[in-house]
Amino acid sequence: MFRHVVLFTWKEESTEEQRARVAEELGKLPAAITEIRSYTLGPDAGVNPGNYQFAVVADFDSAEDFVVYRDHPLHQAAIADHIKPIVASRAAAQFEV
Q: I need a labelling partner for 4 at 20 to 30 A (CA). Which of 47, 53, 58, 93 fits?
């Protein structure tokens, strides 16, 4: 199993509607990209101060399947149209599980 984890913080001027749209658009990806085995996303629970504000955890059978997801046109469109306009910072890692 190959896991991808990405964390975002949003620009202060981003709206709740824009943030919700990110979750909505990313949430469409598992139905469109068959290589995704598991896909969990959501806003930070707010338990600890200073956390990133949004997380995605995605599992794939292989690194090659992750690359299909990474490069998929729907994923790239979600990034370009909904994430990049409001993201302040991003952290990501991929690893074998």
A: 47
pLDDT in tens, 70-97: 999 999 999 999 999 999 999 999 999 9
pLDDT at residue 95, as a whole number: 98
Query: In the beta sheet, which residues pair with residue 7?
Result: 55, 91
Output the pTM of the full model: 0.94
How far is Cα 23 from Cα 42, in angstroms, rounded to an integer? 7
Q: Is-contact 22 88, C-beta < 8 A?
A: no
Which of 33, 28, 37 lies closest to 4, judged by CA? 37
Q: Strands across the sheet with 87-96, in order? A: 36-43, 54-60, 2-10, 87-96
Q: Dihedrals φ, ψ of 36, to 5°?
A: -75, 125
